Amino acid sequence: MARQFLKELKDGDSVEEVYLLADKQLRANRQANLFLLASLRDRTGAMSGLMWNVVEDSLANVHAGDFVKVCGRVQLHQGNMQMILTQIRTVPANILNPEDFEQRPNADVEALLRKLRDLLLSIEHPQLRALMECFLIDDELMDDLSKAAAGVKTHHAYRGGLVEHIVNMLETAKRIRDLYPAVNFDVLLAGIFLHDLGKVREMSLDNAFVYTDEGQLLGHLIIGIEMLTEKIAEVERLTNESFPTEIALRLKHMIASHHGSYEHGAVRLPMTPEAIALHHLDNLDAKIHEFARTIADDPNTGASWTPFLARIDRKLFKGQTAK
Question: CB–CB of 129/241 below 8 Å?
Answer without folding.
Answer: no
